[in-house]
Amino acid sequence: MGREGADETKSFKGWFLRALVFVLVAFVVAVAVYTILTYFHLRKQASDHNHSHAILNKYTDALEISLQFFDNGIGWRGDSGLLDGEDANLDLSNGMFDAGDLIKFGFPMAFTATVLSWAILEYGDRMNAVKQLGYAQESLTWITNFLINAHPSANVLYIQVGDPEVDRGCWERPETMTEEGSLTQINISYQGSDVAAETAAAMASASLVFKKIDSSYSDLLLMHAKQLFNFASTYRGSYSISVPQVQKYYNSTGYGDELLWAASWLYHATKEQSYLEYITKQNGQAFAGWGSPTWFNWDDKHAATQVLLSRVNLVQMKHQFLRTLIARYIGKLLRPLSVVFDQTHQLPHPTEQRLDMDYTMELTSAPCGFCIFLAVLYSDYMLTSQTETLYCSGNFYKPDDVRKFTMSQVDYVLGENAMKMSYLVGYGSSYPQYVHHRGSSIPVDAAPGCKDGFKWLYLDDPNPNVAQGAPVGGPFPNVPILIIGTTQCEPTTIKQKPIFDYLLY
C-alpha cells in the first residue's frame, strides 16, 4: 500500500478527526483490561482450559503492546525536547506529544492522564496480575510531572509547548527536531477554565493512584489540583477564546463540564462535601445537562461525570435522581445493541454487525469508544451495588451482557474485521505498516532538517520503525480501506487510552 493518498492529509487534519483518532486508542486499551478480567472469571468455569488460557494470553499480549506506545524504552526512540520550558525557567521536558506531530497539547494530555488514572484506580489489580501496573504508573508519572511543572503559580498554567503551524511545515524526528518549543499559557487575563479544570481532574485522580505508593507526591498533586480548580472556577472563560489558535486542533466547546468533572474527582480525592455540593447544588443545573448527556471525549465530560458520580449513587445509595438519569444514559449507549437484540435475540457478532458502516461508526468513533468504557464501568458498579439489571428500550440487560458486547468490540479492533487487520500496531501478523508518525517513518540514522524529512513521508516503502502499540483509526464510512497519510493512520494518545482501558476490563 503506497503513499498515493498522502496529499489528502491536510483535509483530514481538523480537530474532530484528531479527537476520533485519540479516543479509539483508549477504546482498545479499556476493552483489553476489561476482557482480561472477564477471562480470569471464565477460566474458572471453562471446560477447555488450554483454549481459555490462549484467549487470556491474547489480551495480555495486546495490553502489553498497547502500553509500549507510551514507553520511551523502544529501541528506535530517544530523548527529545530536553530544553522545553527553558525560556520560562521551567522543566517541561516530560509530557507527551499528542500524535504523530511534535506538539505537547496540554488539554488532551491532561485528559489522557485523568482517564489513565481512572483505569488504574478501577482495574489496577488486573494490571498487576499481568505485570503491567508498574508501566502504567510510570506512564502516568511522565505526564503528571509535566503538569506539575507547567503550573508554576496558582493562577498560571502552561498549556502548550510548540507551534502547531510551524510543526505542520516540518517532518523530522523528535530527537533531532530544529524548531523551538514555544510556550503558551493561560492566566487571570487569558482564562482557560476548561483546560485548567481538566488538569485539576488529572491531578486529583492521579493523587488517588499514588496515595498509598508515595504520599508526598500524592499530596503535591492534590495541592495543585485544588489550586487549579479554584483558578478555573474563579476566572471563568474558554481557552479557545483566550488562545484562538487552538481552535483548529483541540477546540473546546465549553468549560462547564470540566468544572463538574474536576469537582467530582476532587470529591473522590478529599471526601469534602463542598465539592459534591458544587456539582449537585451550586452548578449542576447550569452545567451538567443531567437529562441529555452526549459523548465522552477530551472535550465533553458530561456523561463521564455522571458515571463517576454513579459510583457514589450506586455504591452509597445517594442521590436517587442521578441514579435514574445515569441508568437512562447507559441505556442510550446500548441502543444500537438493543436494536440488534430485538432482531436476533442475540448479542451482536462483531464481524457481521461491522458490515453496516453506519453501525461501525456508531461504535468505533472517538466519542463512542470512551462511551463503551463508561458502560463497562457502570456494569461493574452495578455488580458492586448488587443492581441486577438495567432497563433500556424495552429490554433488560445484565452486567454480563455489557461485558460480552465489549469483548466483541476489542476482538474487532484486534483483527476480527473485514480487513482481517489489527488496528493496534505491532499486534498480530497483519497491522498498518504506513503509520502517520514522524519517528516511525524516518530511519534512526537519518537526521533530516525541517523540510528534508518529507521524502520519508512520501516513500512507498513501509515505515522503517514499528510504532509499537500505536492505535490507528480504521476505515471511514463506505471506505473499507485505510487511506495512507490521513488521520486514519495517525496514532494519538487519546486513541490509545480507550484501547488500554478495554483490554484491562
From TrEMBL:
GO biological process terms on file: cellulose catabolic process
Signal peptide (UniProt feature, chain positions): none
Residue intervals of the Glycoside hydrolase family domain: 72-477
Source domain of life: Eukaryota
Positions of transmembrane segments: 15-37, 102-121
InterPro entries the UniProt entry points to: 6-hairpin_glycosidase_sf, 6hp_glycosidase-like_sf, Glyco_hydro_9, Glyco_hydro_9_His_AS
Keywords, alphabetical: Carbohydrate metabolism, Cellulose degradation, Glycosidase, Hydrolase, Membrane, Polysaccharide degradation, Transmembrane, Transmembrane helix
Reaction catalysed by this enzyme: Endohydrolysis of (1->4)-beta-D-glucosidic linkages in cellulose, lichenin and cereal beta-D-glucans
Similarity-based family: Belongs to the glycosyl hydrolase 9 (cellulase E) family.
Protein name per the record: Endoglucanase
Native source species: Rubroshorea leprosula
